Amino acid sequence: YCTILRYTLHYTLYCIMLMFCSSFDPPVCFYPVEQLPSITDQSPASLIALPFEESFPVKCEATGNPEPEFKWTKNGQDFDPFLDPRLLTQEDSGTFVIPNNGNLTEFQGVYRCYAANKLGTAMSEKIEFIVPSEYNVPKFPKEKIEPIEVEEGQPVILECNPPKGIPPLQIYWMTIGLQHIEQDERVSVGLNGNLYFSNAVQTDSRRDYCCFAAFPRIRTIVQKTAMSVIVSSSKRKLLFIHL
Questions:
Q1: First CA to last CA distance, the chain
Q2: Which of 57, 73, 171, 212 could serve as 193's disulfide partner, Cβ 3.0–4.6 Å?
Q3: Domain that holds residue 69
């Protein structure tokens, strides 16, 4: 027997060329195993072109035997990065790099990588290259919000209604002075971003409840117009009725 170079952990191979193997010390026998292509690395589903980045690699790496050949599509059409001199490419790799030359909008689109050999083809997930602009940065609408008046002990809901943007979305409730609104069993933020008070108390009265929507992928935080809450005392109302 001789030392065996394994291409997978599930195969145990025996040497069949003893004279060839005996010329090595220790003897080694090479037995190539054909393999289907398999994608090993790719870019995330959303690739954001932030203005302060120097370049944007669109990744696609794969293994296989024979070595796979790479092809790309953009928006469902054949796309060859080797034909565009502005893109940086490497032989035996599906990855190409988009340099940030200030004109990225023409590269915006949905890409998909294919790695193929004679045994078959592996396909990556879709990769969307997004170029943000001042027109698609999320913003709250400018609006005038009337004060919310509520009796002490009654529930209150402050609606956030965050703008749509590139996920993930993070919601924060703070004051204009950027002090977080404390949350507990009585005060909480729902999955929809609204601020809920199970029962209002006098100390909830204030004029600067602000909803902040953060979009970390594009490093953007936007603020909604401040909201006012006025909590009236139930004791005063009872006294007024009694009089």
A1: 107
A2: 171
A3: 34-130
